[in-house]
Specification:
The protein is an alpha+beta fold and 498 residues long. It has helices at residues 12-24, 64-84, 103-114, 118-121, 130-136, 138-141, 163-175, 219-226, 298-305, 309-319, 324-334, 339-351, 406-420, 429-435, 446-449; strands spanning 3-8, 30-33, 91-101, 126-128, 150-161, 180-183, 188-194, 197-202, 205-214, 233-240, 243-246, 252-255, 267-270, 277-281, 285-286, 361-362, 368-375, 380-382, 386-389, 393-397. It is globular. It binds flavin-adenine dinucleotide.
């Protein structure tokens, strides 16, 4: 046997699993196989997702139950970032809020906070009115009818994350351990069950392993179905694009979810690495590919679509929904040059009313494809992530918020995988928690509560945030958002969010 465990896919899911198994279990040999020449080149790349660490606090498309599930996942990753990235190279921390506009939305947001349990679940969440919103995000209030009611729920946990860099960090951490091997630029072409495990065939030779974890994004379902698993599922690939503008927001501003719409409402975010760039999106366009802009993945889509009466009936049922259908059609228009940005403009104006079409441009080359799961038995869209557990093998299909919950998924997968392996292996979950959620700032911690200032970024330990950005350890942020006692301006990114 070449190795105990093979992980297929080096996005944030595969990388976080590699980190967890190699650092916190006594499994001897772990191999990661990734088809691209670098890790996290697909959905986990920073240009391809919204860079938000989803806690469930400002995502009004989540139920309380879902928020409760997602929260721990986000705290695990936030703790890891606090521990390993004090200089904020992989992440920044900014204001994050969900904005209600008008009487009806304000009443809805108030009920969510006071009556539906969100205020209790998220003690750092704080209702703020027009004046405080204007202090934090002047452009959100500028040009808005003064008679329109405004309310926002604001939190200092506005982590903006380059999930690609985090995946790289997980892999680097793992490589410090013996028995870890990483094969980049190596495509898995087939997985077969053998008498004592699996044969994983690649374009660079075969590997044998006792257990396999498939973390290949949309392709995970394709691998599963080729092995006879997940036959009751199909995929609706939903591409998300973004529009860019200059410096409109200091942090993240989400809008209230339109009822019954499965995809998150458009939000505005400053970029993790360049706070002067504000992103709006993502859009939601149904596409027949598993990866953005890769025509070669049309046949992969055909595989997971299945062409069965059940999959046709499921698609028809999902897409004929009277809320979803017009939304899907509208989203097709957003990618049309020139016309698209005019059609998209009202979404941006909901966040920043004074924006004009000339202020925004489609972010060329940005965006990914969310593998939304279709339950072909129920003939309905299942908005969550999916985990298929087979005999000695598991498959993860990870639409949003799969990046936020990567470490929580890794805990569950590690337990499952140890159960697949011969011998008495153990997982030091206490040490794993110390290295991750153990350093997540709580409300009692001054830094955590640490209000982001007017520029939307909050300060890291030992710093004073002057202009809305939180500063990294040992630094002071000056009014212009640069580090006052350090010449390395990169340590502080002004005004970003996802
Ligand atoms: C527009 C958009 C916005 C999003 N915003 C957010 C957000 O703000 N916050 C959040 O938490 N989540 C967000 N998500 C979701 C998030 O991006 C994904 O959940 C996450 O990146 C999934 O990570 P992954 O590692 O499972 O998949 P991926 O990052 O897609 O990685 C899968 C890897 O498997 C590799 N692979 C595939 N096939 C093979 C093969 N045959 N052999 C070897 N390797 C293979 C691929 O090359 C790839 O590197 C967003 C997604 C989109 C599309």
């Amino acid at each position: 046997m070449d190795t105990d465990l093979i992980i297929i896919g080096g996005g944030i899911s595969g990388a976080s699993l590699l980190y967890t198994v190699s650092k916190f279990t006594d499994v001897d040999d772990v191999t990661l196989i990734e088809k691209e020449r670098e890790v996290a080149a697909v959905n986990s790349h920073h240009t391809n997702n919204s860079q938000t660490l989803h806690f469930g606090d400002i995502e009004t498309n989540y139920t309380l139950e879902k928020a409760d599930e997602v929260k721990e996942g986000a705290e695990l990753l936030a703790g890891y970032l606090e521990a390993v990235d004090p200089d904020r190279e992989m992440h920044s921390k900014r204001n994050k809020m969900v904005l209600a506009v008008g009487e009806e939305e304000v009443a809805e947001l108030e009920a969510r906070y006071h009556d539906e349990g969100f205020g209790e679940l998220f003690p750092k969440l704080e209702p703020i009115g027009r004046e405080e919103i204007a202090e934090l995000e002047p452009k959100v209030v500028e040009g808005r009818d003064p008679d329109t009611e405004l309310l926002a729920l604001r939190t200092p946990d506005g982590y903006v994350v380059d999930y690609g860099m985090v995946a790289g960090s997980f892999v680097d951490d793992a490589r410090e351990e013996d028995g870890v091997s990483v094969h980049l630029g190596t495509t898995v072409t087939n997985v077969d069950e053998t008498d004592d495990g699996f044969r994983v065939e690649t374009d660079d030779g075969d590997f044998a392993a006792e257990a396999v974890a498939v973390a290949a994004g949309s392709h995970s379902l394709q691998f599963a179905q080729e092995m006879g698993y997940g036959e009751d599922k199909s995929l609706l690939p939903v591409a998300g694009s973004f529009f860019l503008a200059d410096d409109l927001l200091n942090g993240k501003v989400y809008t209230l979810q339109m009822k019954k719409l499965p995809f998150a409402a458009v939000h505005g975010d400053a970029d993790v690495h360049d706070g002067s760039v504000t992103r709006f999106g993502p859009t939601a366009k149904v596409v027949p590919t598993l990866e953005r802009g890769r025509v070669s993945t049309v046949t992969d889509f055909a595989d997971v679509f299945g062409f069965t009466p059940a999959s046709f009936a499921s698609y028809a049922n999902v897409l004929s929904d009277r809320i979803l259908f017009p939304y899907v059609v509208r989203n097709l228009v957003y990618d049309v040059p020139e016309v698209g940005k005019r059609a998209f403009l009202p979404n941006v104006q909901k966040v920043v009313p004074t924006v004009e079409a000339s202020d925004i441009d489609r972010a060329s080359g940005y965006g990914g494809v969310r593998p939304q799961i279709v339950d072909t038995d129920a003939k309905a869209l299942d908005m969550g992530e999916a985990k298929i557990t087979g005999d000695g093998i598991l498959f993860n299909i990870t639409p949003s918020p799969g990046a936020s919950t990567c470490l929580k998924n890794a805990i569950a997968d590690t337990h499952t995988l140890l159960g697949f392996l011969d011998g008495d292996h153990s997982f030091d979950e206490a040490a794993f928690r110390d290295a991750t959620i153990g350093t997540f700032p709580r409300l009692s911690d001054d830094t955590a509560a640490g209000a982001a200032d007017a520029d939307g970024e909050t300060a890291a330990e030992g710093e004073t945030a002057a202009e809305g950005e939180t500063a990294a350890e040992g630094e002071t942020v000056a009014e212009d958002g640069t580090a006052a006692d350090d010449t390395d301006d990169d340590a502080v990114v002004p005004g970003a969010r996802d």
